[in-house]
């Protein structure tokens, strides 16, 4: 598991991930200087450290290097979440607490991700009017297949 990036490392990697192409120290420097006062050598050192840690690969271009991300920000975030979850003494409780912190948009993204991971064979048929969340046929909830599977339609 990679250690979390430091504040300046994250600022540099954010640009590398966002631009999604090989970048120079000068490009990162000029963008960072819009937010803070920072020296060329500082950015060069950070990118060199990120290279040594395996976050970026570099290719010589004249007397300088071009740096490119080795993995995505999504992969980094996933690794951090996996590490935090695996350190819990009660993983189920940790997940429940984490899900409770999520916004509606994040929960929908989680549902979408689960559908992708589970694959097409596990996708359910669209609900009919009789089994849908609104249940217009007046079937009791306990007989509603959608309720029995834990799908509340939210």
Describe the overall structure:
The chain has a two-stranded antiparallel ribbon. The model is unreliable at 128-154 (pLDDT under 50). The radius of gyration is 23 Å and the shape is elongated. With 154 residues, it is mainly α. Helix content is 51%, strand content 8%. Helix 2 crosses helix 3.
N-to-C CA distance: 34 Å
Mean pLDDT: 82
Number of helices: 7
Shape: elongated
Question: Any chance you could write out the topology, listing elements then pairs?
Answer:
Layout: H1 7-19, H2 25-32, H3 40-52, E1 56-61, E2 64-69, H4 73-86, H5 91-101, H6 104-118, H7 145-148
Antiparallel strand pairs: 1-2
Helix pairs in contact: 2-3
Structure summary:
With 154 residues, the protein is mostly helical. It has seven helices and two strands. It has helices at residues 7-19, 25-32, 40-52, 73-86, 91-101, 104-118, 145-148, and strands spanning 56-61, 64-69.
What key attributes describe this structure?
mainly alpha; 51% helix; 7 helices; elongated; two-stranded antiparallel sheet; 154 residues; 2 strands
């Amino acid at each position: 598991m990679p250690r979390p990036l430091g504040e300046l490392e994250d600022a540099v990697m954010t640009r590398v991930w966002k631009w999604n192409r090989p970048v120079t120290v000068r490009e990162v420097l000029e963008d960072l200087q819009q937010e803070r006062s920072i020296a060329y050598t500082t950015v060069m050192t950070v990118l060199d450290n990120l290279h040594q840690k395996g976050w970026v690969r570099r290719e010589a271009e004249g007397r300088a290097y071009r740096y490119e991300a080795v993995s995505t920000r999504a992969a980094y975030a996933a690794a951090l979440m996996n590490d935090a979850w695996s350190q819990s003494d009660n993983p189920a409780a940790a997940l429940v607490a984490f899900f409770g912190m999520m916004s509606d948009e994040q929960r929908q993204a989680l549902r979408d991700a689960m559908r992708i991971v589970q694959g097409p064979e596990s996708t359910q048929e669209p609900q009919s009017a009789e089994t849908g969340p609104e249940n217009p046929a007046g079937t009791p909830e306990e007989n509603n297949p959608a309720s029995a599977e834990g799908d509340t339609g939210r």
